[in-house]
Design brief:
5% of the residues lie in helices and 50% in strands. The chain has 366 residues and is mainly beta. The strands form six sheets. Strands 1, 3, 4, 6, 9 and 11 form a six-stranded antiparallel β-sheet that branches. Strand 7 and strand 8 form a beta hairpin.
Length: 366
């Protein structure tokens, strides 16, 4: 019954959040030197936790725990109840001052005779930590335990492993996240948008972007200074993409406009999309009363905006939804607005003077 409940729990977890779901992470729960790792089953304490005479911790002085092999052949096991329909990634970091064979297994019971399915095997002979990783697409039925085996190939040495991870992950999968928020711009002008691509799968993958052209044209995409529409990503890598696009000049002010960017990979097994919402501005708002001696600067701005005009009466700051964020009466010919706390976006400044009832100009806060 306990096994069934645990399997159902893992299934539910995988349904809600599949890629990157970590099932085991590290040996941090091992809290005594020279004892078997807590939660693991070991033969004759053949794996121990703690510290050797020389510091084998992968990240020095962090206090993380690691396990090291004690003997010619060291096994340790943990119940996992792996699900055949899921894909898994097994990752650890290993170091040896001699030569060891490190292998990852699965089986029906916590003993070496029951370990029937080998995921990965690698010879560890480096004086620096090596990343050992294995992707498993098909799990045989009845694999209720995972096993780690270290076999000494050369006498008088240790094998140390640190931060073992077991997680559910697909071979090719990625996610996308928009960075740029809502934008206002004039038809016929260019805007810049930013988004992130996360490679959450096991293998490297090429991701191709496909922008919609209903409202925009003249696209250019950049990542790390490279102009391209296909970007290569490594597992666990995040790529920042910048796109320049021009709002079509025939778009009417007040239209609900957007830019969709679809992303695909060669196997067509996963897609993603980001959407940027855009408000087309009416150019006549800033050209009304051209002869007025009104200056608003700097634009774009990061911290402050200065408004200069003869006989100022009031200044109102308005967001893209038409909400007045601040309004103040003033006298004189100059006023300074603090916009440092506002998020990056487009805002409007409405100015009233003794000689004009309303003058509106858009500003870009970056």
């Amino acid at each position: 019954m306990k096994k069934l409940l645990l399997t159902l729990l893992v299934c539910l977890t995988a349904t809600c959040s599949f890629a990157g779901s970590i099932l085991i992470e590290g040996f941090e729960y091992a809290n005594h030197d020279l004892e078997s790792p807590i939660g693991w089953i070991c033969d004759d304490n053949s794996w121990l936790c703690g510290y050797l005479e020389k510091d084998h911790n992968r990240i020095p002085h962090t206090g993380n725990w690691y396990a090291f092999a004690e003997g010619d052949e060291a096994w340790m096991f943990m119940p996992m109840y792996l699900i055949p329909s899921m894909q898994y990634r097994f990752t650890t970091w290993a170091i040896s001052d001699g030569q060891y064979s490190l292998s990852l297994w699965a089986g029906s019971a916590p003993d070496r005779e029951s370990m029937t399915h080998q995921f990965h095997s690698e010879t560890i002979s480096s004086q620096q930590y090596m990343k050992v990783s294995a992707y498993v697409e098909e799990i045989p039925e009845g694999c209720d335990y995972i096993g780690i085996c270290a076999t000494k190939l050369q006498g008088g040495c240790f094998l140390t492993i640190d931060d073992i991870e077991v997680e559910m992950v697909e071979q090719y999968t990625f996610e996308a996240e928009a960075i740029t928020g809502d934008t206002a711009m004039y038809p016929g002008t260019q805007a810049t948008f930013h988004f992130l691509i996360h490679n959450t799968g096991y293998d490297p993958v090429d991701i191709t972007v496909h922008p919609s052209n209903e409202f925009f044209t003249d696209f250019s995409f950049y990542s790390n200074g490279i102009n391209a529409t296909t970007f290569s990503t490594q597992p666990d890598e995040t790529v920042r993409v910048t796109v320049n696009a021009t709002l079509r000049p025939e778009i009417e002010p007040g239209t609900v406009a957007w830019l969709d960017i679809n992303m695909t990979i060669p196997c067509n097994c996963n897609t993603a999309m980001v959407t940027f919402w855009v408000t087309p501005l009416d150019i006549t708002l800033t050209e009304e009363n051209k002869d007025l001696n009104i200056s608003i600067y700097p634009n774009p701005t990061t911290d402050f905006v200065t408004i200069e005009a003869d006989e100022l009466q009031s200044v109102t700051l308005i967001d893209l939804n038409g909400k007045a964020l601040s309004s103040m009466a003033t006298k004189g010919n100059s006023i300074r607005l603090d916009v440092s706390d506002l998020k990056a976006s487009v805002y409007f400044i409405s100015v009233k003077t003794r000689s004009t009832s309303s003058f509106v100009k858009s500003i870009l806060k970056i």
